[in-house]
Amino acid sequence: MEGRLRSPTGRYGGKSAQERKAERRSRFLDAALQLFGDTPGYRGTTVAALSEAAGLSTRQFYEEFRTLEDVLAALHLQVNDWAEQAVLAGAAAIGDAPIAERAAAIFRAYAAHVTADPRRVRITFVEIVGVSPRLEEQRLARRSRWVDLICAEARAAADRGEAAPRDYRLAATAFIGSVNGLLHDWSAGWVAATLDEVVEELVRQLLSMLRPVGWEAA
Questions:
Q1: Is the peptide bond before 40 cis (omega within 30 degrees of 0)?
Q2: Distance in angstroms (rounded) separating the CA atoms of residues 61 and 4
Q3: Which of 24, 45, 107, 159 is the most exposed place for a label (fewest CB within 10 A)?
Q4: pTM
């Protein structure tokens, strides 16, 4: 179907058209989290099935989205935004602590949030992969934001004399791949460890990246 259908305007049931639109969108995304993140998955879901799960009509679907890919794109961004908010809150709570403590707080916040709901793991690491060039670009762009976060922490640690001063982008990119792979495998039950042990391993890897053999703290 080309384009979106025009949504009604004015107030109805005490809600404005904008409020009703936001509520419909939220219901579609909640239903998508369930269907895309569990059974049958993104590739097995139809517009009709998603609309039924949301308790809305297909006409209302096309008032909010053009395609199911648009829903997956919005859901992927939403799940990543939730994780980013959890990480920023964890970092703010620890304050200006040494890098080992900050890293532990950041990874614990991220790991606890992402793995708290297996559907988020599937959306982030499985369903988004290989759908289209557009979504691949979006996936890599969101990963780049996590790389930026690691680089910022590394630069701050280097300024405090806690890490070797160098360009960390290449190392951070490789490290983020390790983080995602380990959390996915742990969530899938392929890693025999507690979540605390997973976080401890990530902290060890980050510190070994920041403090190479032969480097001494200022």
A1: yes
A2: 9
A3: 159
A4: 0.84
